[in-house]
């Protein structure tokens, strides 16, 4: 698989309950940029964004299912190239 | 390209001329006046004389613009072709058919 | 900190998904496959292996209902507190609600239409994975329709234009724009529907269609709309995935599918983009506190994310950016101004009100559109303002010419000349048909047999099918009540708003 550096993005609802999730994404994606729009946070990075269950759980202090990500997401640009029990990855494929 | 369907796909046009009897639809556009977002659509008799069409149909609409001056209407066009209409010629005589587009300027 | 308890044992996500979704499918034994699935071959699309369909969400029915219930719980908590605290008084201005009137009249009925059609796909697609994804989406769309009605019903107690939206959707001129788009999609085959609604509408343009409403709601004090919007959008991400998965799946199945899909992308990009023109007008003119200009949103969500991100990805399959996309880019400085002009010209026949932009708003537009506003659009608004200062109000005293395909009044200009209306015509079986753009003309010429049937509201009025020949008769047939329509300044909404904020003691009636 060739890797691409085109921007991918995830839009997340700007809510208190999503803050640990956003912190976890920040921690695991050092290149991440965050833009604030009314009511939402626009997360963007070149190539891919990864979300790790363990990082989110350590931020939350509780168990977290990757499926719960569905409660936070508003929109995205890219492709869910991985979504299993431990990890979610958004990237372009080609 | 035909519509892909599981049966013979053939339906009449919703606005075919016969649905309007002795009348027809005519569109009129005031070139270069952005106060009006678009051309207007009118239903008028095909036999209506052009002078009556301008005075009784076009002018009341164009007067939506407070600066409209009916005597200043000029440069009629039918689609893209210049048109020199006589006031007593009917729309049909002038070749203004169903769903024709007329333009004018002032 | 206490030690986290060991996680409860359960099957891995992939296995759960396989067992609860795909493994519940069966081979028909007493009915032929073609009889069971009669609609999946006539469009010319070839599928060799339905199991090639991937659902990245790997959603199972138990997880689906768990998360949806949680989303509803959060939403209804917001609705209750907003209603109990008279939250509507905290909006930026009552005129903001014109955007929400447009939403419930134009968008909510589409949710219901989508619910119906995804239920159909959940029955007729051949693979169990796309069937289950379509089933979830069908239930989602019904939820969206219902939560939107619940949310917005609170405003119906205090403001005009929120009643009769379902009837209006079927009858009123500007609402024929979204209605006819969905009718076009629902009368196509199942694969074209996937490309039209799931891909073009839900993936390509969803951010332009929905996110501006929601950010606008947030910025203008409308927490309930923002909440239902984002609650719906979280489902929308799943719908986007279905759209993207659909296109990749179809492209991977057979090379012969590529040109068919390309033609559908070409058609549906332009159809959905033309409908989004209504959103452009809303964003730039209807929000008392504007969030982001249409132009900026178009650049961010469409040019950067889709043309810059998605299409290079699809190039791998031989897909090129949509036909006529350069015309859309060429008019980004003009679209919203031309569309709001339509609404301002004709709001005497709409279930919302309009107003000439204030000086402050005009200054914002000038800042956002340095290349077009001062030169082309401000002088016209200034003329409206002068007339209004003298006690008048200019409306278009007549009916507009409509585009045969998108059904928007023919207000759009030439891609290379923003002072000349773009008129396109086609002849078919001896009749002339008018379209507003290269895109709409191309769509008409591709399937004239379909588009000659268009129910164009202006022509229907002239055929005598809309309650009568006079404006009051048509408005009555539309379900528009006096005060829903016209100019905002001096409207019942504006007067109530001023009274509620005057500090004077309320008269109990």
From TrEMBL, chain A:
Q: Which InterPro entries match?
A: MOase_MmoB_DmpM, mOase_MmoB_DmpM_sf
Any GO molecular function: monooxygenase activity
The family note in this entry says: Belongs to the TmoD/XamoD family.
The name of this protein is Monooxygenase
* Higher taxonomy: Bacteria, Bacillati, Actinomycetota, Actinomycetes, Pseudonocardiales
TrEMBL record, chain B:
What Gene3D superfamilies does this protein map onto?
A: Phenol hydroxylase
InterPro entries assigned: Phenol_hydroxylase, Phenol_hydroxylase_sf
> Which GO molecular-function terms appear in the entry?
phenol 2-monooxygenase activity
Query: What Pfam families does the annotation carry?
Result: Phenol_monoox
Specify the superkingdom.
Bacteria
> What name does this protein carry?
Phenol hydroxylase
Q: Which organism is it from?
A: Pseudonocardia sulfidoxydans NBRC 16205
UniProtKB/TrEMBL annotation, chain C:
User: In which residue ranges is the amino acid composition biased (Basic and acidic residues)?
Assistant: 486-498
Start and end residues of each stretch annotated as Disordered: 485-509
**RNA-binding: present as a keyword of the record?**
no
- Kindly state which reaction or reactions the protein catalyses: propane + NADH + O2 + H(+) = propan-2-ol + NAD(+) + H2O
Q: Which UniProt keywords apply?
A: Monooxygenase, Oxidoreductase
Domain of life of the source: Bacteria
User: In what residue span(s) does the YHS domain sit?
Assistant: 413-455
The record's listing under Pfam families reads: Phenol_Hydrox (PF02332), YHS (PF04945)
Q: Name one GO molecular function term.
A: monooxygenase activity
Could you tell me the EC number(s) of this protein?
1.14.13.227
- What does the record list as coiled-coil region(s)? none
Q: What is this protein called?
A: propane 2-monooxygenase
Give the encoding gene's name.
Answer: mphN
